[in-house]
Amino acid sequence: MQEQLSERVDVVRSFICTLESGKKQPSLDMVFRLAAALGVKPGELVDAVAARLAK
Asked: What is the pTM of this model?
């Protein structure tokens, strides 16, 4: 899945891995690119992170 997503947003797979692990935060542009590649609204990605941080 990481490989496919990285190809869709034109980044290396290791970058996706660092985002998933929380070691790096995406730029706003990257949030939009990731959302488009995943077929979701950008706010859904942000809401998911906000919910995780609120715990």
From this structure: 0.86
Q: What are the backbone angles phi and psi of residue 26, rounded to the nearest 5°? A: -75, 150
d(CA 7, CA 4): 5
CB 26 within 8 A of CB 11: no
The answer to whether residue 10 is domain-embedded is: no
Are the C-beta atoms of residues 24 and 33 closer than 8 Å to each other? no
Structural domain span for residue 38: 25-55
How many CA atoms lie less than 13 Å away from 17 in the CB half-sphere? 4
Contact 38, 5 (CB under 8 A): yes
* Averaged pLDDT score across all residues of the chain: 93
Task: Return the structure tokens found at 53.
Answer: 């941080």
